[in-house]
Amino acid sequence: MTQERRLYLRGGIPLEGDVQVHGGKNTALPILAAALLCDEPVRIENLPDISDVRLMLSLMEGLGAGIERESASVVVVDPTSLTSITPDPALCQRMRASYYLLGALLGKAGEGVIARPGGCAIGVRPIDQHIKGFRALGAQVKEQCGLLEARAAQLHGAEIFMDCVTVGGTINVMLAACRAEGNTMIYNAAKEPHIVDTANFLNAMGARIRGAGTDVIRVRGVSRLHGCSYAVIPDQIETGTLMIAAAATHGDVTLHGCIPTHMESLTAKLLELGARVDDYDDTIRVFAPGAHRAVSFKTQAYPGFPTDLQQPMSALLTTARGTSTIIETIYDARFHHLNEMQRMGAQVRIEGRTAVINGVIKLHGAPVAASDLRAGAALIIAGLMADGQTEIRNVHFIERGYENIDLHLRSLGADIHKA
Ligand code: EPZ
Prior knowledge:
By secondary structure, the protein is α+β, with helices and mostly antiparallel strands.
């Protein structure tokens, strides 16, 4: 039996130096699925080398797509040879973003069958809005024996009002609609950078999507999509995690190849707690020599404070002076990391979707386990701040979304290794 890898950290070292941000996970996954819609091969660059991307590529290969890896970050997808409309159910259950294959298959082949997608355990995660969108476009959608089937002789444009702001729902409807007959309007659309990047990629293949990044998106259906070469935007959440790590360790880190405007809600909070943040074109410097003040925030859809950074940020706040209150509005179970950090001396009270953190002077290292991807990132931040050794189990969660985070942090001076 192979032993699960663990991360070992010794904290208390200020992170210092320069680091390059990788391509975005939550952009790469829909863009890969979107490549299936094309009628010619497509080249995608700046993919992060993470397990979720590898899983998406396996799912696509299983459908008959040609996948040629030019390097760890560049892939050519040939979607002209699809032989199946059913991505491997066991693999779908391992990753929520597998749902993008349903929108793409529906748009390309008029039918798709997926197992209900899995993903990180952070609360209830329905996909009713995706289904509502597909139905509005004229698809028959039914679920039996855990499989979701969507079929349409011809998709046609429709007016769709999303009942909640959903990243996945907005993108999935865009995927299905871009080859539908006529115009589709998506109201109450999500505005995350991933939406804009996926729309830009679809447009680079000849789709006609306007309004991505606002809450009304218009898709004019086209009959054909052509090949292109496209680079995925930098990872907003990796950028934020590294910014928080720099501040948490009272370090001085310059991040390169990132998009400062995507980070404004986090930057505002880091300034409020006493760190300094300097933005340049595609570079952000975070330095934080002094003590941190407690700050409070609520997670929100973009441009609000992202739920995916709530966990790393709340880890930092466990040692800020005073009491921080965090309200998690997106998911109902995204505080497991704070429970785990109580083993490291964090003082936290959790009531439903609210966490109240009383800052302590220091955390101490302890054996802890990641319960999901960003919980793992939060435990890394905690370990970087703590006295003594922290051992993090369930590293596979972290590997879903952070490329070589141990090497990244080590290049900034952290005492961290995987074994
Ligand atoms: C995406 O998930 C991200 N995943 C998540 O990142 C991220 O937390 C989330 O967006 C919010 O920013 C990917 O991009 C692969 P949603 P998604 O649909 O699209 C409710 C990470 O750590 N909802 O925007 O699945 C839902 O329950 C991951 O990288 C419905 O009610 O999230 C949630 O409360 C975790 N019905 C809220 O909307 C639906 O049909 C937002 O979910 C869809 C969603």
